[in-house]
Write a structure and sequence with these properties.
It contains nine helices and eleven strands. By secondary structure, it is of the alpha/beta class. It folds into two domains: 182 residues, P-loop containing nucleotide triphosphate hydrolases (Rossmann fold); 63 residues, no CATH class. Strand 8 and strand 9 form a beta hairpin. Strands 5-6-7-3-8-9 form a six-stranded mixed beta sheet, with helices on both faces. A three-stranded antiparallel beta sheet has the order 2-1-4, covered by helices on one side.
Amino acid sequence: MTTDQMLVEAKDVSLSLSGRKILDAVDIRVHAGEILAMIGPNGAGKTTLVRIILGLLKPDTGRCFSAPELCIGYMPQRIVVDPILPLTVQRFLTLSHRATEQQLCQVLDEVGVERLLKSPVQHISGGEMQRVLLARALLRKPDLLVLDEPVQGVDVTGQAELFDLIANIRDRHGCGILMVSHDLHLVMAKADRVLCLNQHVCCSGHPETVSSDPSYLELFGSYPSMALYTHKHDHCHDLHGRVESPCKGDTGHG
């Protein structure tokens, strides 16, 4: 995919379930090489819209379009694994995608958890599991990554590192990223564009533009300094949120 190529687009999408309007005339598009953050309150229809884009739900009205031969990597909010099920990270990653051990090590190394290959999934932390789920999505070599609450269950001090990782993946692979998140203070700093959803599109555009839009302020309050927070400090965190000082592989940058 070339940079700026349209990957997916939904036009005038509406959906009602059990008589309740979930989405009302929603337009959304994602281009190659960009991070689009979709934000909104609980019940805004964000996950429903993702399912429509993935082809898992059919809207009542409107249409979805995708680039020819588009490959999508999807990272769900959460996966519940039976605690008595003997399932290693290696086996988990190959349940839906064939891959050699070398390929698995490569993608786990990219997300920073190669050492977990043989670990039972029940024994890894929330932050580690999110990285394993990201690795699972990357195994598809996607043109588009769809990430539904990617920092779910991650300690607040480790969230910035995960968002940095997601931005670096975009830079390395040139893929488009559609990211659903409640973590406004970090996602606004990493996104190229933001779409604020509350059944309908309240506002969209560059993060600075959205953060001053009356519709955004009505939903989230007047916290522009928080929303555009940039994470800069002179230490790092491990996957559990603990401070590592000095940083592993530190190059002297803050």
